[in-house]
Amino acid sequence: MKKYFRSGAICVGSLLIFFPFAIARGNQAASGTPQAAAPPDLNGVWSAPFTPDISKVLGHQPPFTPYGAARFAKEDEIDDPLTKCLPIGPARGIQAGIMPFQIVQTPAVFTILFENQHTFRIIHTDGRSHPKDLDPTWFGDSIGKWEETR
């Protein structure tokens, strides 16, 4: 068990360390203006350790702001989207480590395929804007761009 936790922790730590740098890297914009560098290749299957209760991992409750402590005290597991067979959302799908997810990346699209509930998130990186007649969806309509930060 410790071996799997350690491997998962290394994977998550690597993702948390390198992902902000990966996002910050440049890309060729839709207008054709060259940027300093191409985006990193994040294609592949990713996974994180399952940590439903972070206090067990830390050995104590994490520090809360007064607002956070009040919200945490009101949380009830019965309101968890998983208990209602609803999508959990991309942030939790990536960070909770319930099941692995896969990134499929092209110059125009960054797609995250979640094994849990077979959901997906498509992030268009081709310079388009949001549609004017946007239909509501579970994960919304995502657009993004690669940027270089200095």
Topology:
Layout: H1 2-24, E1 44-46, H2 54-58, H3 66-74, H4 90-95, E2 101-105, E3 109-114, E4 119-124, E5 142-143
| Major sheet attributes | 5 strands, mixed
Instruction: Let me know the number of strands.
Output: 5
What would you call the shape?
globular
What radius of gyration results from the CA coordinates?
A: 18 Å
Notes on the protein architecture:
- The protein has helices spanning 2-24, 54-58, 66-74, 90-95; strands at residues 44-46, 101-105, 109-114, 119-124, 142-143.
- By secondary structure, it is of the alpha+beta class.
- The chain has one domain (2-53, 86-143).
- Strand 2 and strand 3 (109-114) form a beta hairpin.
- 8% of the residues are buried.
Describe the structure concisely for a colleague.
This protein has 150 residues and is α+β, with helices and mostly antiparallel strands. The protein has one domain (2-53, 86-143). The protein is built from 4 helices and 5 strands; from the N terminus they run αβαααββββ.
